[in-house]
Amino acid sequence: MPNNAAKRILVLGIGNILWADEGFGVRVVEKFHRRYAVPENVTVLDGGTQGLYLVHFLEEADCVLIFDAIDYGLAPGTLKVVRDAEVPRFTGAKKMSLHQTGFQEVISAAELLGRCPRHLALIGCQPLDLEDWGGPLTKPVRDQIGPAIELAGEILGEWGVTATPRSEPLSESECLLANDIDHLRYEMKARSA
Questions:
Q1: Is the pLDDT of residue 16 over 80?
Q2: How much is the pLDDT for 188?
Q3: Are 41 and 7 in contact (CB under 8 A)?
Q4: Which of 9, 71, 114, 123 has its CA 20 to 30 A from that of 77?
Q5: What are the structural domains of the chain?
Q6: Between 36 and 182, where is the model more confident?
Q7: Rounded distance, CA 26 to CA 77, Å?
């Protein structure tokens, strides 16, 4: 692998914000991007439910850090980190939505092309509710956004990357999500409905 400064790293949130806790991965990567600036060799991406459209992002990365809602069979809100060869097993363990099967296929496609990242880390959160169409994250899952970001900082540190706290807030054009689907505005609407 190239030296740490040259590693291409992808920080990826996957999930569907329209299904309550299923949006955990997207909300974490959104908050991570708002809080931290990263070096040019790091890409921060809201992967949503894009499935196979994410293959080229994996092909270009040496290391991938993924945030997602994962049914580990644990207490709601429990965070668990899995790495490398174990990641595909958990992204397809229990089908909670179409994107998870799709992401397992993304990893398989990158492997078949011979360009799978050398290192994978999945920070998963046990969901409480995946049935509330249009609903916000539940409290036990929402409460894990900060701890998931802290874990991400540790993993990125292992990969030779420092995430620097932003000194100024992002402008609207720099945010990952806009059009009232960012976390704050979306949940304010969901609570008032």
A1: yes
A2: 55
A3: yes
A4: 9
A5: 4-192 (3.40.50.1450)
A6: 36
A7: 16
